[in-house]
Amino acid sequence: MSKNYKTLDANEAVAKIAYKLNEVICIYPITPASPMGEWADEWASQIQPNLWGTIPSVVEMQSEGGAAGAVHGALQTGSLTTTFTSSQGLLLMIPNLYKIAGELTCAVIHVAARSLAAQALSIFGDHSDVMAVRSTGFALLCSNSVQEAHDFALISQVATLKTRVPFIHFFDGFRTSHEIQKIELLEESVLRALISDDEVLAHRARGLSPDRPVLRGTAQNPDVYFQGRESVNSYYDACADAVQTAMDQFGELTGRHYKLYEYEGDPNAERVIIIMGSGAETVHETVDYLTAKGEKVGVLKVRLYRPLDGERLAAALPKTVQKISVLDRTKEPGAGGEPLYLDVITALTEYWSGNMPKVVGGRYGLSSKEFDPAMVKAVFDNLSLEKSKNHFTVGINDDVTHTSLDYDKSFSTEGEKVVRAVFYGLGSDGTVGANKNSIKIIGEETDNYAQGYFVYDSKKSGAVTVSHLRFGPDKIRSTYLISQANFVGCHQWLFLEKLDVLKEAKEGAVFLLNTPYEKEEVWDQLPIEVQEKIVRKQLKLWVINANKVARESGMAGRVNTVMQVCFFYLSGVLPQDEAISKIKETIQKTYGKKGPEIVEMNLKAVDNTVQNLFQVPLGTVSSNIHKPPIVSPLAPEFMREVQAKMLIKEGDDLPVSVLPCDGTYPTGTSKWEKRNVGQSIPVWDPDVCVQCGKCVMVCPHAVIRGKTYEESELANAPSAFKFTNTRDKDFAGEKFTIQVAPEDCTGCGICVDVCPAKNKSTPSKKAINMQEQQPLREQERENWDFFLDIPLPDRTKLKLNQIRQQQLQEPLFEFSGACAGCGETPYLKLISQLFGDRTVVANATGCSSIYSGNLPTTPYTKNAEGRGIAWSNSLFEDNAEFGLGFRISLDKHAQFALELLQKMGGTVGDNLVNSLITSSQHSEADIWEQRERVEELKRQLQGINTPDAKQMLSLADYLVKKTVWIIGGDGWAYDIGFGGLDHVIASGRNVNILVMDTEVYSNTGGQSSKATPRGAVAKFAAGGKPSPKKDLGMIAMTYGNVYVASVAMGARDEHTLRAFLEAEAYNGPSIIIAYSHCIAHGINMNTAMSHQKEIVDSGRWLLYRYNPELKEQGKNPLLLDSHAPKKGIADSMYQENRFRMLKSSKPEDAKRLLKEYQQDIDNRWHTYEYLSHQMPSNPDHK
Amino acid sequence: MDLTTTYLGLKFKSPLVVGAAAPLSEDIDHIKTMEDYGASGIVLHSLFEEQIKQERLALYHHTEYGTHSYAEALTYFPEPEIFHVGANSYLYHIQKAKEAVDIPIIASLNGDSIGGWTDYAKNIEQAGADAIELNVYEIPTDMTKTGAEIEQIYIDLLHAVKDAVKIPVAIKISPYFSNMANMAKRLTDAGADGLVLFNRFYQPDIDIDELEVTSNVLLSSPQDMRLPMRWIAILYGRLNVDFAATSGINKGHDVLKMMMAGANVTLIVSALLRHGVHYLRDMEQEMLHWMEEHEYDSIKQMQGSMSQINCPDESQFERVQYMKALQTFHPEHSFV
Question: Could you give the ipTM of this predicted complex?
Fold first, then answer.
């Protein structure tokens, strides 16, 4: 096989070309385009040159808007410049796109096409984003596959240099950007041959230079603007020819020939589908299948969408066509049709000679919705109808407006020559990584074509992954998930009771199962539903105790290598000995640079696998074990009927009618999920516990809770329910319990880390100790249910400045899908406890919006009165403004309510009016009393039928204090949303801002932000961040009227609590910058809270509060709550992989950056210490 | 005045060699400064095989942890082309140290396996170190192992390293052998070019408030030098091997005592950590002053002069005298 073949995804395939062909690359993270920027940054840090021998300047910007501006600037000064983006990012670039195109600038932007946020955000693929820029003047060139994406990255660059029309080169997000395919890599000589240096020089010569000054970017008036706009027409007219010429030249050099509008199928077809993007490959595959059966069908693949060459498009269609279905992967509500459909009609109207074919349009594949041959068949079948449905949808069940086409799910075009394997794994067990390796082995070590596609769920802890691998002798066009698998691997036993892992298994398939049971007992331990399927499909059942083999090889929990060996052994893709030796070679290649120990344990796992792999004969379908219900029958109907389907990966089957039309979902649903992802859970020892509340406070998933209660509540306690005397004198005589939710715990162990109470006889034990979950599950489930029914302590009587009492408050944020040990969620839980019954949250896009708002379930919940946090996510960039909008609106409601109230003394009584108006609402008790007054007001207003009374009734609740929390990460607050955040804190309005500072863009995989400390390795800072962390708190303090706090819960929890109470109480803007440890730091997550203490002790993070109210009291508003750094920063830094990595990759740079970082820390400490010792300058207060 | 001495076949301008300690030798600038203040050689801080393994495993764990779980964050770190996990940075440090100074550079190695000892020793030799000091640092806690088995481990690893490299090899050992003299002989027979006496194990402490075992480093105190001095004095002249004295050498006079006991060089650590590296100059001055005052021409003149075989009363180094000393000891203040 030629050495030019590689198996890789489109992001890498495109980045390889874009990197070679540019001098400036402006980057910003956004899924699914981020890896292109990551590759560019990595290659630049490795000093890899571009085509002309220089290393491209790769620069991260603060937003896609910023990236577009920088791209525009770099282009205007003559550099070959690119950027990579997607979805909302592309929208933020729109103003610059018009400019770049208007100025006829040679440029290519590579886009992994993705849905736009509408009723909900979606990270998955469709053409909503690229369709939103079709009017900018950029050419739009679409790639349908990984190979095309690689090739068109070059062709678009050739074309832009030739035509001066800038290009957006796009391909489908995830389906293409993340699909691993075997492709032929372009040789540099091909790039050299196609890129004209003269055109590059001409581009540079058009750049601004004071040596040949010109002015570009004028303001034009009615007299000439119009003519100026028309002056570009000839360039657009020439564009299509230029692209086709580039494609033709490319074909001569590579043997891969492309057409702008490429027809495949019967030359005399009567029915044709017109489509662009990865779906075209599935249509192509289906057309091949149907034409072989004699059907007169075809597909026209649209590659150049803008400028549209209608003449070529029409000419590419067979003259015999009678009916056309145009498929759009986007939706334009209210339009006369989707864009490609309308364009096709225009093209045919203008250029078709003879009888016009009938054209219908339809939508498919939004947000990576499956688009498979069965759906293609349905589209062709629709064309066969006398009255074909127009403006249809395919792939969903629209039972409301009945747009959808029915399709036969059993229809398949998958041939016998293709081996299809599906693997169910956990994110943490390494299944996906191993499968990526397998695809590389098959693609690069055999003559087979190979394809890998991976499906992830919405959780960051205990996430289920499904890998779809295909390989065979012919090119693979199947851009859809496998439904007829020859091989199914189930890498976790617990999936058997939750998921239908055999739904893809075809008759006679191999079923490889990782089991904790001996081979003789496995059959009887299978749920009856699984037994039934195995027997009905006559599957070949193979089992291995992979956890045991992995553990014995030193790789506890990572079953990837073991299961990979089993796959190769059973699939027969290679002779067994050869397969084993290839795996070993790959292990050496993958892990060699990481050390011999790593290689050794993987090799050991390989050697130990085959002897532990057994085939199990099929028994009778007689198991006593049944799959449990997905959620409790006590759950609300929407949870049982709708969200439960999503939980078991059957959300595709939900019809339109059951989904909310405006994106509104109930809260309080995460508690029904019972994920059972924690292999061990905390167990309480009442005799050792000091009842401090720290474990409750730090628990990221709110699974560990405390209660004090009357002894009488224990009357019906389960026998294993634990309690002891309450130590707090305020609750003397009561009983106390710490209880764990066994099925919601992720087993992170953070609670054990912070527990200060040690067993005096065995100090290795604390008041909380981790134990295996499985044997405790039933008993603790019963205890948890009992615990929940014990009444909560009276909120109005709790001393909220004491953690032990404050933590008795009910959390209204629980069981999120955040990472095990998450450093952000404890802060959100604290807000929910303190203010949850009166809070509205504006949440910036990022980790917190995902674990808070990603379906199927939501962690925000309600108290017994039905009150809780109301939550929304607008965008990434506008969150501060969004939250300010909440504040202004809520204040308006309250103001109007007060105005109405003042008119109502006669109706509801002056006393009530006065007490409602004058209530201070400072404390929980005040707020409780105000709520009572409001209830009284509502009672009195009932039945009064005046307009004012109706308005008053609708506004009465706003007389109770409402708190606005504006929440997000550092990517939002320091970078993309900083402008808005700055404006909001300057507004003086009473909003509370929580910045959960993980010092990287956590959600998109750890890209550097302006909060990233100097010297840390992050994506986009592969060589270590060279500049210091921005001091957001200091910037906020310069206003003087903003409450600012910098906290780290793990370093000093009571300081955190005090800051949150003060921030909310402050009648003005407040901002809390909260250190949030993160999986992206490469730390031990179970000791991350105590690590925060080391960080604060070293001075890397400061604890302080800046309270403008202190100025009024003649005091210095800045309280520096940290002690002077006790030691240098190196010890705490090098416990984190982000710093260690640089030490191991670039030791000299690491040393220099450590020194500079220490200097940053020392300087900051001295500055804050100085400021905290200054007296206020206002002489009135002396 | 001739302060020169030889150790491991290498020439040293004085017996003032800086012993192995990371704070002293991990910075090349420090090494240069110590040379300027009179250090005659540097033993670099130890390369710990076990630590390297742990670092590799940690790096692997943290680069893999949480990956390929969630569609937006399939990894959390860029993948560097090279990982200098392992000996690379240490070997690079040897090269840099050799470039920076003219005095001998001795690398120190603490292995965890025979393969590790020999592989790293070869690497150290290739990196240009003038000699290797094997830092054998182990507390045997396995109750089924005999003293003889433990001793054999030392002998085996020394043989292995000697077979693997051509540069001189010293071995740093603890005093906890049943028969120190026999052990010293066996090590010499196994090819040791030098014996470094003694390794001082850091002893753990207990924090009674936090119920934790702590491991803060205690610098050596002057009385710590008595033990190595005794054994160097006893062994001098009886074994064909060099001696490096370490522990508690705090003053120029202490260096002279060690020379008289029979040491070739002294390894200074605690004194420099306590007073700063410029203290080397003070120690040297004190030595010179004493030697002038007492009309010594050279260090060689005094080396071994007070060893057991040369001293006026060889029984002073034997254990029985300790009992006698205690019986005749009367403190100046009341202790009842």
Answer: 0.93
